[in-house]
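#struct-pred

JT: dropping the chains for the assembly here, can someone run the whole complex?
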Amino acid sequence: MRRFSVLIISFSFVAISGAQEVKLEKPPKDISKYYPPNSNKFEFLNSMYSMSTAFTGIFINIQENDWKNAEKWAKNLRDNYIGIGKMVPEFDKSLKKDEVELLLKAVQSKDQKGIKRYADVVGKSCPQCHQRYKITTKVMYHYPSFEVINVEDPITRNQNSFKDHMKKMTDSMKKVRIYIEDGKLDKAQLEGSNFIKRFKAVSESCSECHSSKLSEQLYYGKDMDEKIQLLSKALQSKNKEEVYKNLSYISEYNCSKCHNTHQTVSNIKELLK
Ligand code: HEC
Ligand code: HEC
Ligand code: HEC
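RK: done, full complex below.
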């Protein structure tokens, strides 16, 4: 399974969306020079924002008949655009370098037709690259990794990887159901208490990435504490309906919500490794 996913990625990551094929590729390695831990300045991304502003700067000034400033922005666009290939040489050949020079010339000579023509060609080269590399770049260089996060298992006292902790906690959750269905209520009670301990331990990992308690409280707030207490009581009184009711609530408002914001991206990141 592991080899299989690595194999897919080394060529490309292909998903089918409607009739359209969506293709995601890992960006060239050189791009990593412009992201942490190699650089905290995000030079590549900043150059992107500069180009976006420059494009708008050209057209706003032409509309206002301010050709001097239009030229300034056209130069700015040219420099940043050519700069992409200097930062990441593998991107160089896909750039419309002649056209970006011709766009500058057209602005200098107030040639409206030429401006439209070359702005079009240069402009189209932006989404062409974005479709292939933008999402993967974001996932690889902006999203933090869960692989470096450990959780101390409150039952065994081992340091679990985040993923292993998820599995162990899920196992406890499933065993509660199985033992209840099998009529082994004492065992269900014990596994339920393991589940609750493992569940609480997850919340200790939030501060590894979040500096504000507000994020944590969205999934581990007062209401969640209440449901955990109700679950614990239901396990003690062997009230099957109440156990299930509270487990469902926890699944929906803790596990699923957290997975929507963290697990999906984390899984894509793992594929792109
Ligand atoms: C050869 C590839 C390539 C070309 C050409 C390119 N970009 Fe980008 N662009 C990227 C990548 C990769 C990212 C993602 C960077 C990141 O998020 O750190 C990006 C991100 C951006 C962003 C940030 C948007 C967001 O969703 O965060 C803007 C704005 C942008 N590009 C504008 C432009 C413009 C305007 C052009 C054309 C003049 C252009 N780019 C051409 C690769 C390219
Ligand atoms: C490996 C790093 C990492 C860990 C660990 C982590 N998160 Fe996050 N979380 C993120 C990232 C990245 C985002 C997207 C927003 C951002 O960049 O801050 C996010 C977003 C969120 C959001 C959306 C609202 C917001 O605050 O931006 C919530 C809520 C949240 N996390 C809760 C939690 C809870 C609860 C835990 C612990 C159980 C946790 N997170 C653990 C990285 C992490
Ligand atoms: C930080 C928020 C967060 C909370 C809360 C959370 N999870 Fe997860 N879960 C994740 C992330 C992130 C992954 C992916 C980890 C990885 O693949 O390295 C994951 C992965 C998993 C997996 C897949 C493990 C595997 O084998 O790949 C299972 C199963 C799981 N979680 C179950 C649960 C259950 C059950 C709960 C609630 C009781 C829960 N999780 C609560 C973030 C969370």
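JT: nice. The two ends are 14 Å apart (CA to CA). Residues 160 and 207 are 17 Å apart (CA to CA).
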